[in-house]
Each structure stands twice: as structure tokens, then as C-alpha cells.
Amino acid sequence: MTVAELKKMWEPAAQGKISKWNQINPAWPDESFKLYGADTDSGTFDYFTEAIVGKIKLSRNDFTESENDNVLVEGVASNKNGVGFFGFAYYIEDQTKVTAVAINNGKGSVLPSVETVENGNYQPLSRPIFIYVNAKATEKPEIKELVEFYMKNAILLVKEAGFFPLPPRAYTTMMEHFNKKRVGTVFNGVSAVGLTIDELVRREGRLEYDNY
Q1: What pLDDT sits at residue 207?
Q2: Identity of the highest mean pLDDT range in 61-65, 151-155, 187-191
Q3: For a surface tag, which of 65, 66, 181, 187 has the fewest beta carbons within 10 Å of its beta carbon?
Q4: Alpha carbon distance 155, 173 (integer Å)
Q5: Which H or E run includes 109?
Q6: β-bridge partners, 35
Q7: CA torsion 142→145→147→152, rounded to 10°?
Q8: Which candidate, 19, 46, 51, 2, places its Cα nearest to that of 192?
Q9: Nearest 5°: phi and psi at 31?
Q10: All structural domains of the chain
Q11: How do residues 97-142 score in pLDDT, each as one tens digit?
């Protein structure tokens, strides 16, 4: 599916008007689809709507939402025309039940995988997540030890949690920032949709200083 097709399916204007596959793409079946997605209070929903529709929380609301990704998996799996979005880890666990959809953002169709997320090809649906530490708290030995442990073991820990780890070089850079007591965020109110991890890390000039 293209990003444009996803937008046509999920944007508010589609509600009550678009309910069949062939209304999205004439080459698709004349059958009604059923939508499933993360609950509207989740970060997953916020990112998906920003990346696909163009604005956070902007979406049709006639879809089955749940904060439990297993419920979404079962919903899609039990409906021939079910389609939805949820954490990749749940797809990995249930590949015998559901099928991943390749996304085309104008550069060819790409399936989600560790490789396509890390090299930046799976766009715009790979969402970066960082940890933030209170600047004053870093003066405490136990906090410093915790961060060092996390950064040294993050790749293994993140995989065990069902997420994609950042490239090793990113952890090295972040550890350098921590040791130099750099504060702020790579986001600074600027959207991260469509950016690779390397591009985010290079946003050093946009750090917003914050010590709360």
C-alpha cells in the first residue's frame, strides 16, 4: 500500500464514505474492510496519524481501538478483510495469523524488518523512542550506573522487549552526550516522521536545553 492509500483509508473524510477496498484502489476487491488500531491515547496512535494523515490524532473514529495489541491481532486475524496497525513485536509473535503489508512511500514497497528500520527504508512507519534523564539526577552515582548499564546492554534489552534497537553507533553517540552532560531533545518540537536514526542524532544543533 502507498502512504496516499493509507491516508485515504484513515483520514476523517473517509468516515461514512469509504468502506470498501476498491474505493481506495479500483484494482482491489469490491469488499468491505474492517479497521483496527491502537487506542487514541497511545503514542502509537499519535505517531501513526501524524505519519499517515499528517496531523497527530487526526483520524476517522469508526475503527476498533484497543490498548491491548493482542486484541488487535486477533481482530485482524479473525476478519478476512481486517487491517490494522500495532507494535511489530506482536506481528513477529503471530506471523501465522496475520500478514505484514509492504508500505510504499514513493521509493518502492518495503516490508518492516530490523534491516529496513535501521537503514531508514521502512518509512514513515518506524518510530524512534529515546530515554531522558533529569540533569540533576545524573550527579547521583546510582543514576549514572543505571544509564551506563542501559546503554551498554540496550541492544539485547530492547530486542527482549520486542522493539528494534538503534544502530550501535547511535548508542555510542548518546553515551558521549551523556558523559558531556548535554541536555535537551533531538525532537525540539520538530517532527521526526520520515527521518532515519542517523539524521535524528545529527540534530545536535537543535537541542532544547531543559533541566526539569
Answers
A1: 34
A2: 61-65
A3: 181
A4: 14
A5: strand 109-110
A6: 83
A7: -160
A8: 51
A9: -135, 150
A10: 3-110 (3.40.190.10), 136-206 (no CATH)
A11: 999 999 999 989 999 988 888 788 898 998 877 788 888 998 899 9
Residues 37/12, Cβ–Cβ less than 8 Å: no
C-alpha to C-alpha distance for 18 and 10, rounded to whole angstroms: 9
Q: How many CA atoms lie within 13 A of 176 on its CB side?
A: 8
Report the percentage of the chain scoring pLDDT > 90.
54
Using the structure block, give the residue that is written with the C-alpha cell 537541542.
Answer: 207
Count of C-beta atoms within a 10 Å radius of residue 117: 24
Q: Are 183 and 207 in contact (CB under 8 A)?
A: yes
- Residue 57: partners with Cβ closer than 8 Å, 6 or more residues away: 40, 45, 46, 49
Rounded CA separation 69/87 (Å): 7
Interaxial angle between packed helices 43-52 and 3-10, expressed in degrees from 0 to 180 and rounded to the nearest 10: 120
Distance CA 188, CA 133 (A): 16
Give the bridge partners for 38, in sequence order: 66
Give yes or no for a contact between 149 and 142, defined as CB atoms under 8 angstroms apart.
no
Q: Are 10 and 35 in contact (CB under 8 A)?
A: yes
